[in-house]
Amino acid sequence: MSTRDVRGFTLIELLIVVVIIGILASIAIPKFQSTRQRAYRSALMSDLKNLATQQEVYHNEFFTFSTSMTSLGATTSEGVNVVINAADNSGWGATATHQGITTGQCGIYHGNAAPSTGDPASVVGVVTCNF
Q1: Which is deepest, 39, 41, 124, 127, by most CB within 10 Å?
Q2: Count: domains in the chain
Q3: Contact (Cβ atoms closer than 8 angstroms) between residue 97 and residue 118
Q4: Is the CB of residue 35 less than 8 Å from the CB of residue 89?
Q5: Residue 86 located in a structural domain
Q6: 32 in a domain, yes or no?
Q7: Using CA atoms, how far apart are residues 20 and 110, in angstroms rounded to an integer?
Q8: Which domain holds residue 110?
């Protein structure tokens, strides 16, 4: 039996396959990270919009806004940390961060409450992010 009759892959063919897999991975990984970042941002924005609704319900009952997530009955998505920076009978402001995002945050404020330092919120009642 000659060596030409042996079936199998050559080293060059295997190296080409490994290179192609590497190229595909280098394209797919950044796309995945970008998608994950958008999902984190959506979670932040959703939690802040839900907080705004809960603040309105609280205000209708007690005629003031709350600084306590517990008194509002507010829950957050996994990995999200919401901080109510200011609240009184004339307005409130809050910021949210996600443990999966190392820089940036989202914020919202309502009424006469001014955005806190570093709060990206710039329009009353609109969730704004700085990433």
Answers
A1: 127
A2: 1
A3: no
A4: no
A5: yes
A6: yes
A7: 53
A8: 9-129
